[in-house]
Amino acid sequence: MVVRRSRSVLLACTAFLALGTVSFAQQAGSTTKTDAGDNKDATTLQKIVVKGARPKKDPVADTPLASQTTADEINNKQINRIEDLGRSTELGVGFDRTSGSVNIRGLEDDRVLTTIDGIPIPYMLDGARGADGGINSFNFNTLSTVDVVRGADSSRAGGGALGGALVLRTLEPEDLIDPGKTWGGVFKLDYNGDDRSFGGSAAIAKRIDNTAVLFQGGYTKGHELESNGDVGGYGATRTEANPADYNSRNYLFKLRQYTDGAGTFGLTAEHYDKDQTTDLKSAQSLTGNYRPGQDSGSEDIKRDRVSLDYNFESTDDDSLFDTANAVFYWQRLLREDGQDAYRYTSVIGDYWRRNTMEDRTFGFNGNASKSFDTGTLHHKVTFGLDASFTKTTQYSAGDDSCGPGPFSPFSTCSFLHTNQSDMPDVDGKKIGGFIDDKIALGDSRFSLTPGLRFDWYDYTPKNTQAYQDSSNYNGLEPGQSDNRFSPKLRASFEPQNDMEFYAQWAMAFRAPNVTELYENYGVPGGYLSIGNPDLKPETSNGIEVGANLGDQDFGGHLGVFYNRYKNFIDTYSVPDTTGTYPLGITEYFNRANVRIYGFEANAHKTFNNGIHINGAFAYANGRDMDTGEYVNSVAPAKGSIGVGYATDTWGTDVTFIAAARDFDKSGNTYRVPGYGIVDLTGWWQPEKLKGLRVNAGVYNVFDQTYYDALNTQGTLSQAREFYSEPGRTFKISLVQRF
Q: What class does CATH assign to 2-737?
């Protein structure tokens, strides 16, 4: 096992060094050519001007199915959370606060891939104790771009991109340093009324000769995300959100060394953490087990990563590659949910729990591209390789007055099992590679892009004492290994530079995650929630036809898609005929056939008099084709219309957002009604205060009580308004660039 891992790491290191060698070889070639004359010297000076510049798009997002939000848009539209994306620049993108996951085209959890600087952020599924999530472990103030890739296409993104991908890029020194300067920075203060949070962020970059450094840090202190309920107190009738306090911190450091050619070596260190404590008033009562002030919950998330990267962008047609990028990384993600309480009626006494999931990963990701001609055909070949080695652990720690046990069936203590793991530690290995070729057919403006990706994974469960301490331990399940090829074919026609029509067929792939395979939570004489080591990987087969039209002043997008999914992983509950688990068994299984189809459209127009208008619409429909059941994660149709006015120094916008009534989904106790809300925003850039911008907005102007279907799935245990979205709220931010 160790030998195999060492060899894989050695291969990745060799690839990284090879890319660097290509750069140095090209530097030497450039130096030789520079001696030939003054024109070559001018070319060399041009290299110095552009050195360190990155490709505009991540290779995963280099597709007509992607749209981009820039750092300026993040600041100007006051985007602080993933939910804000779906309310402003990316209609149709949602965030499920219950599962802690991004939702694109009706899929969420680890069916949507999230990457930051090319490094996957894992989604953690704790099916038993609720420590789900992890992909929102970043701060938007650290980002230079956010690309949303829609559709089932694993050809570049790799396993997990069944619904699409959220592709994040952090700030680089050149994002802050204007041309002709050697330093730059940005400072931001903001207030967000929906959780009464104050935040501050600062970033500064400095370049000295061929070396640049960037520091960024941020801090936010806030409270609970408000509902629009107005009933306080305790218990199931409460509709106000439970009181909460949170602190969020993030730090980013980058060191960049630009070579005399077109390459850049980099070192990046990043940290994010958020801790939240909640007074669980909705679970308290004057006479119940949990009394007022004696039951609090906690939620912590931490992510750290260190990465070494190399980026190359050729200025010479004779280069081996036009572009090349590679990154080695280490990343640790920790997700913890806890409870601190005193119990009054059963198992009387102090009670606390800390339920954690942790993912540690070493990995490599690299890609390169080259353009060339064969006869009348112009080729752009892009290929890449990625590998990761992951260790996933889960543990529940706690203390109560139950004592060591054993406990009789159906006693309260038999259901309070803790100080154990509900699954084994799992070592995971993943290797993937892709290649595609954009083939332009002469001067016809027509192109074909065939592509192919290969993914392989291997899970090896490890027996630990914590897992053996589980009351439901029954030996170690076998490991699982599998692989898949995912092809694609895209046809594009560009009658002019600002117009593209495309059609794509693509397949995608997702391996089962370790919880779906190995979860083992329960107790004989009670209930059982169990993974399924025989699960098959999910696959998809989809087509999309669409168009990207126009530019920033006048344009739009239209996309129609249809996707079929095989072996769609879900859970079901069944009675136990043996009597071992009389309260039932919940197990993961593969749905044979699921389909999701829909369409998306958006358009915008800016007039010469300063008025601008925009509109967007997103619709998806998902069903199990065998049972007819709706897919719970598919949100109802949503649309928006906006009109605004802007000058050089100030502007204002009014946006109307509406959503349809939710589908009649099985298992949901509440069918979310449609809604319509209005947001009013404005901005001001004082002429005499260079670099300063003030943004402000009133959201849900008419204080409507409405619900997000993604956050009301399943059985509602509280009064309905407890799950409502915030009412009328206010945001303001000050951004100063230097």
A: mainly beta
Exposed, middle or buried by CB within 10 Å (0-12, 13-18, 19+), for 177? buried
Q: Are 439 and 431 in contact (CB under 8 A)?
A: no
Q: What is the pLDDT of residue 56?
A: 57
Q: What is the spatial distance between Cα 40 and Cα 160, in angstroms, rounded to a whole number?
A: 46
Task: Read off the tokens for 3.
Answer: 């030998």
Q: Provide the residue type at 368 as one letter.
A: A
3-class DSSP assignment, residue 164: strand
Residue 144 to residue 141: CA distance in whole angstroms: 8
- As given in the structure block, the two tokens for residue 459 are 């899970």
Q: So what's the pLDDT on residue 159?
A: 80
Coil, helix or strand for 28?
helix
Has residue 379 got a pLDDT over 60? yes
Specify the pTM: 0.90
| 184-201 residue pLDDT tens | 999 999 999 999 999 999
State the CB neighbour count (10 A cutoff) for residue 301.
Answer: 23
Give the largest CA-CA distance in the chain. Answer: 90
- Residue 2 CB partners (closer than 8 Å, separation 6+): none
Domain-by-domain residue ranges, the chain? 2-737
**Measured torsion, CA atoms of residues 589, 93, 57, 217, in degrees rounded to the nearest 10:** -100
Q: How far apart are CA 717 and CA 239, in angstroms?
A: 11
Q: Which helix (H) or strand (E) holds 338?
A: strand 323-343
Non-local (6+) Cβ contacts of 53 within 8 A are: 174, 313
Residue 137 phi, psi (nearest 5): -90, 60
Radius of gyration of the chain from its Cα atoms, rounded to whole angstroms: 27
Residues 6+ apart with CB under 8 A from 67: 89, 90, 147, 148, 150, 557
pLDDT tens, position by position, 502-549: 999 999 999 999 999 999 988 877 788 899 999 999 999 999 999 999
* Nearest residue to 392 (alpha-carbon basis) of 519, 257, 499: 519
What string of DSSP letters covers 550-618? E-SSEEEEEEEEEEEEEEEEEEEEE--TTSSSTT-EEEEEEEEEEEEEEEEEEEEEE-TTSEEEEEEEE
Report how far residue 194's alpha carbon sits from residue 197's, in angstroms, rounded to the nearest whole number: 8
Tokens of 462: 């490890």
386 token code pair: 């990625």
Of 160, 154, 140, 164, nearest to 69 (Cα)?
140
Q: Which residues, at least 6 apart from 465, have a Cβ–Cβ distance to it below 8 Å?
A: none
Q: How far is CA 289 from the centre of its chain?
A: 38
Residue type present at position 296: S
Q: Is 75 helix (H, G, I), strand (E, B) or coil?
A: helix
Query: Sorting pLDDT into bands at 50, 70 and 90, what band is 558?
Result: very high
End-to-end, the C-alpha distance of the chain in Å comes to 52
Indicate left, alpha or beta for 209 from its phi (over 0: left) and psi (-120 to 50: alpha).
left
The bridge status of strand 164-170 relative to strand 112-116 is parallel
